[in-house]
Write a structure and sequence with these properties.
Layout (H helix, E strand, L loop, with lengths): L30 H5 L18 E4 L4 E3 H19 L3 H4 L11 E3 L4 E2 H25 L6 H20 L4 H9 L5 H23 L5 H10 L1 H4 L1 E9 L9 H23 L4 H8 L11 H4 E5 L5 H4 L12 E5 L5 E11 L4 E10 L7 H17 L3 H12 L11 E5 L6 H7 L9 E6 L2 E13 H25 L3 E2 L1 H4 L5
Antiparallel strand pairs: 1-2, 1-13, 3-4, 5-6, 5-8, 7-8, 9-10, 9-12, 11-12
Length: about 500
């Protein structure tokens, strides 16, 4: 799966914010003045930089203030959208100038400086890759232009539905003055940079031998293990004394040691479990399958499962692991690390942005209509690809006929994921699901590579790409007009 690169060519979702009066008291304020419901901010009326002024340059590009604002405000809007209910926890007031709010008290940096740094980082990634594209005579093609046109059209439609002009709608989350022309320039830069990224990433060659070697060398990252587990809880809570807590931890450790001794003495793991944890009256004893787990040594379980990834590990090995709270896990290896041979999936979708329809019912009716049209076609796949161009609002997949390849379980949002990995799923299946992004008309294209192979190849590509990206970042000079960077937004 292609990761690493920030894909910003997408609809920016404006977060809704609530009104909040914050009073910043300046030196000399009297008690009376502090009681007035008047918010005073040093930067409330600061003069912003001219959006058409050049704020950054490379050898072949003159980048205006409006483009940097696009990236800065995209970071800001995404933050609001993701953490809307926790803004007060972060100490961020969306109604106050970012310049007047402290982000890091120790360093004295403001929220403006925080979002500016994120915006500049994103701009630099795209601008430097766009610079390489220009040097290698790579340009946007008609499919790129069509995708950008669709992106802007979606914003126009959203503005109309909110009874706003394009500029009025954009000003809600990008500030005044973001015209279609200025927005297009920013998105074209993004698109060109991403196009070069794809050229580089797709051009990285990874052999079957490299993949196999990477799996063996980094088996802890990719391998699955089967094991049986018994959990012994240290029984205490906040009402217990230190002595009582320590006694509870010792009791848990002793119980786990006795459990392990039963297994080492010849009992099966499930027999030891039922003897140590007898079933309640009327309940059946546990079966072996009830205790068997398939897992990977991820961040949360690495220490507990590490013994199974060591050289010479074998089925039957048993280990006791105690966590920081004194709880104890008795783990017996059932199968040493092996490859995850589950297939990934190649799936196509048409994203119907629900905001483009008067009601959710209307959007669902459209999804049903498209599903029936696809099923009735003599060539459903060809019809689906045709409808992608006409209806999809997902710019990340329009150019590929709605296709996402080698999707692994968990890569997509829950409803999308569950449709893809339904055990009954077959090639050519058509349906639709609803997610937070809208209705997705789905087409199951085919099964992809095995998960272990996809993971290894992706990691090898990412490592190679990082080296290439570092060289690009070092070779392309991007210079800022620092006099303007403090006045991107208030």
């Amino acid at each position: 799966m292609k990761k690493l690169f920030l894909i910003l060519i997408c609809l920016i979702i404006a977060a809704s914010v609530v009104s909040c009066n914050v009073i910043i008291n300046k030196p000399g304020d009297t008690a009376d003045s502090q009681t007035e419901a008047v918010t005073q901010y040093e930067h409330e009326h600061m003069e912003l930089a001219d959006l058409d002024a050049i704020i950054a340059t490379t050898e072949h590009q003159n980048i205006p203030v409006s483009t940097l604002r696009y990236f800065v405000m995209d970071q800001y809007s995404s933050f609001l959208n993701n953490y809307y209910y926790y803004l007060s926890y972060f100490g961020l007031d969306p109604n106050a100038p970012l310049h007047d709010q402290i982000y890091d008290k120790e360093k004295g940096t403001t929220w403006y400086e925080y979002f500016l740094s994120l915006g500049k980082k994103a701009l630099e990634q795209y601008a430097k890759f766009a610079e390489m594209a220009i040097k290698e005579n790579i340009a946007l093609d008609q499919s790129d232009i069509d995708s950008i046109d669709e992106y802007i059209k979606n914003i126009e439609d959203a503005a109309e539905q909110n009874s706003l002009s394009f500029e009025g709608y954009m000003s809600e989350y990008m500030g005044d003055g973001m015209t279609k022309e200025r927005l297009r320039a920013a998105v074209e830069l993004s698109r060109l940079g991403y196009k070069y990224y794809l050229k580089v990433y797709d051009g990285i060659e990874v052999t079957a031998e490299q993949i196999e070697a990477d799996f063996l060398e980094n088996i802890k990252n990719y391998g699955l293990v089967d094991y049986s587990e018994a959990y012994v809880k240290a029984e205490y809570d906040e009402t217990n004394t230190d002595e009582e807590i320590e006694a509870a931890k010792v009791a848990a450790a002793d119980k786990a040691a006795a459990f392990k001794a039963l297994v080492e003495g010849g009992k099966s793991f499930v027999e030891a479990y039922n003897e140590t944890f007898p079933p309640a009256e009327g309940e059946a004893p546990l079966e072996e399958s009830d205790l068997l787990v398939t897992g990977a040594a991820n961040a949360s379980s690495l220490e507990k499962l590490a013994f199974m990834f060591e050289e010479g590990a074998k089925a039957g090995d048993i280990n006791v692991y105690t966590d920081e709270n004194g709880n104890v896990y008795v783990v017996q290896c059932a199968a040493v690390p092996y490859k995850n041979t589950q297939k990934t999936v190649n799936v196509r979708h048409i994203l119907l942005d629900s905001s483009a329809y008067s009601t959710e019912e209307a959007a669902e009716a459209k999804a049903k209509e498209l599903v029936e049209e696809i099923k009735a076609a003599s060539d459903p796949k060809a019809k689906f690809i045709e409808l992608v161009d006409q209806h999809s609002t997902d710019p990340g997949s329009i150019a590929t006929g709605g296709l996402y390849e080698n999707v692994c379980p968990g890569d997509m949002v829950t409803e999308f994921n569950d449709w893809c990995f339904d055990p009954a799923r077959q090639e050519g299946d058509v349906g639709y699901v609803l997610t937070d992004y809208g209705f997705h008309v789905m087409y199951f294209d085919s099964f992809g590579d095995e998960i272990w192979r996809v993971d290894c190849e992706s990691a090898l590509r990412d490592t190679s790409f990082e080296k290439i990206a570092d060289d690009v970042y070092a070779s392309v000079a991007l210079t800022y007009n620092e006099e303007l960077t403090d006045r991107i937004t208030r």
